[in-house]
Amino acid sequence: MRALILSDIHGSAIAAGQALAFFEKFNCDKIFLLGDTLYHGPRNPLPAGHGPMGVVDALAPYKERIVAVRGNCDADVDLMMLDMPIEDEFAVVKDAGTEGAPEKTLFLSHGHIFMPECFPADALHTLAPNDLELNGRSVDAYVYGHTHIWKCEKNFKGVLLVNPGSTSLPKGGNPPTFALYESATAASPAKFSIHRLDDGSELASAEI
Question: pTM of the entire structure?
Answer without folding.
Answer: 0.96
